[in-house]
Specification:
Layout (H helix, E strand, L loop, with lengths): L2 H13 L2 H7 L14 H4 L15 H9 L12 H16 L17 H18 L4 H16 L7 H18 L2 H17 L14 H18 L5 H11 L24 H5 L5 H15 L13 H13 L17 E3 L4 E5 L3 E6 L5 E6 L2 E6 L2 E5 L4 E3 L7 E5 L2 E11 L6 H12 L6 H14 L3 E12 L3 E8 L10 E6 L23 E2 L4 H7 L1 E8 L1
Helix pairs in contact: 1-13, 1-14, 4-5, 4-6, 4-14, 5-6, 6-7, 6-8, 7-8, 7-9, 8-9, 8-10, 10-11
Length: 538
């Protein structure tokens, strides 16, 4: 495959979402929601307020208007597209709160992520198209000031990196030194979060997928600012991230703290001149992930803009030099104790095991996905679901040719909104909650993401890499606790997740692998309180 053809694959992925994005925006100049990209609000009218996150969708439109992409001739230089970009920025300003913040999932949320994503999209579009509108500049300054003075609960490194990038853009537009001071402050916080293994934390630990977003935002910032302070941290992050590009060019998965298959290629293309690992990762992603269809598909309404503009930017900044050499073969397991990720790689096999998530594993043989397992799932008669993959402090034992993880199952709840719960919640946000959005966000994080209930049922998983890959699962449960504690279903799920993450559970080819049904072991477990399941996998 020639380098030109490889580069064009980036454009193909990015352009594929443009009709989708043009379908989402209100294109009627006479409409009060002209420029709004939240179709559920302005068209279907199933939402009571517009999500500010959607206004980042101006950026892919600005890119296809401004640049020549192979296959993008329909969009290049179209005045209507330029008008929609400007309308989208104006609607972002018009729909914001007075302080410049915006909501995402619920009223008066003032979501930092939505603020930063939409501000980056708007300011980058403004700079690309050379717009000069004082009202827009005033809006950018107001939103930037809000970002400077507000933090969010939890450690979301990708949000911090994006805030650095967005604030720097506003500084470039306004020249305001206070905004540059905000850039330095946020950057200092983010670099302090970086671990000695190279990764940046996402909530409770390491998520390789979100790490590529943090790398991307920092690489963009470096290209714009030439701030030498981020170069070595970027190289360290890329060295770590390069271990988790799979042999088929896919990336990340349920073994990350946030369950993401996310991969942002633009940052790796920007860093290719500085990092052999960046070149190697980008090339494998193109040649297998994109070319052979193994990349993740973030194609729903909320997510489609992220990878659209990122792939278009990767096309524009394609490295084009010599291909990255493949990394040396690892013949023994390597364990990152901070990230709690174990990697085995030999001439035929590649496997990642998360000890932070009870032994979640992905196994590749001869370059193809052979097995994926997000841990043991137990369904009890009373409706309780127990899982072994919630992030926790499990007992870990490194074996001569493998690893062992043991601990307690966690209780998993499937929460769905009801008419009553949504009414009560929105009324609360419209009254007390509008002045306590940070407290509400923290509460929702504890419920949907961080909250855990440890169960008395225990497990131990042992994975050994010999001539074959042998996996043993042991389960202990108390007997005689009543009919409600009877095990009704027992599985190893390939793609089961139990916390809310916006970019998780998108389509990626591994989700088509069948779950493993351990139903034949239920009777023994219910009767004796212990079962040992031995398997050769892959």
């Amino acid at each position: 495959m020639s380098r030109t053809v490889e580069r064009d694959l980036y454009a193909k992925v990015g352009l594929a979402q443009i009709p989708h994005i043009l379908s989402m925006v209100d294109r009627n100049p006479l409409s009060p929601t002209y420029g709004c990209f939240d179709r559920a609000y302005w068209h279907y009218k199933t939402s009571s307020f517009p999500s500010g996150m959607y206004q980042e969708f101006v950026l892919p439109l600005a890119l296809v208007y401004q640049y020549d992409f192979p296959g993008g001739e329909t969009y290049k230089g179209r005045i209507r597209i330029q008008e929609l970009v400007a309308a989208g920025i104006r609607y972002a300003a018009r729909s914001s709160h007075r302080d410049g913040s915006c909501d995402d999932y619920y009223p008066y949320e003032r979501a930092l992520g939505a603020v930063a994503f939409s501000l980056y999209g708007a300011t980058e579009s403004y700079l690309l198209l050379g717009l000069e509108e004082e009202d827009m500049v005033d809006f950018f300054r107001r939103r930037g000031q809000w970002l400077i003075t507000h933090q969010e609960s939890g450690r979301l490194s990708n949000h911090q990196a994006l805030t650095v990038l967005a604030l720097y853009n506003v500084h470039r537009i306004t020249g305001d030194p206070q905004l540059m001071a905000g850039v330095r402050s946020r950057l200092e916080t983010l670099l302090q979060w970086q671990t000695n293994e190279g990764w940046f934390p996402e909530y409770e630990g390491c998520d390789p997928g979100y790490l590529t977003a943090t790398i991307d935002f920092l690489a963009k910032y470096y290209r714009k600012s030439q701030d030498i302070a981020v170069l070595d941290p970027l190289k360290a992050a890329i060295r770590f991230a390069s271990q988790f590009i799979h042999p088929d060019g896919s990336y990340g998965g349920e073994y990350g703290s946030r369950n993401t298959f996310l991969f942002f290629p633009h940052g790796f293309e920007l860093m290719a001149a500085y990092s052999q690992e960046a070149r190697q990762v980008a090339d494998l992603y193109i040649m297998r992930g994109i070319s052979e269809g193994y990349r993740v598909h973030l194609d729903d309404d909320r997510l489609c803009a992220h990878l659209s503009y990122n792939h278009l930017q990767a096309y524009l900044d394609f490295w084009g030099g010599e291909r990255g050499e493949e990394s040396a073969t690892v013949t023994e397991g390597r364990y990152w104790s901070g990230a709690r990720l174990y990697l085995h790689r030999d001439e035929r096999r590649y496997a990642v095991v998360s000890t932070a998530k009870g032994g979640v594993i992905r196994l590749y043989v001869d370059g193809q996905l052979a097995y994926a397992d997000s841990g043991i799932i137990v369904r009890l008669a009373d409706g309780t679901t127990l899982v072994s993959h919630l992030v926790g402090d499990y007992e870990v034992s490194i074996k001569e040719k493998g690893i062992q993880v043991a601990g307690h199952f966690g209780s998993c709840r499937y929460r769905l909104p009801t008419g009553l719960s949504q009414t009560v919640f929105h009324l609360a946000m419209l009254t007390v909650g509008r002045w306590n959005s940070d407290a509400v966000r923290g509460l929702l994080q504890r419920i949907l993401i961080l909250g855990k209930r440890k169960d008395s049922t225990r497990f131990r998983r042992t994975i050994l890499f010999g001539q074959q890959v042998d996996m043993t699962d042991e389960i202990w449960k108390d007997v005689g606790q009543g009919p409600g504690r009877k095990v009704e279903a027992l599985y190893a799920g390939t793609d089961h997740t139990s916390i809310y993450v916006a970019v998780s559970q998108s389509y990626q080819h591994s989700c088509l692998l069948e779950w493993t049904n351990y139903g034949e072991f239920r009777e023994v477990l219910n009767r004796e309180g212990y079962v040992r399941i031995e398997r050769t996998i892959g």
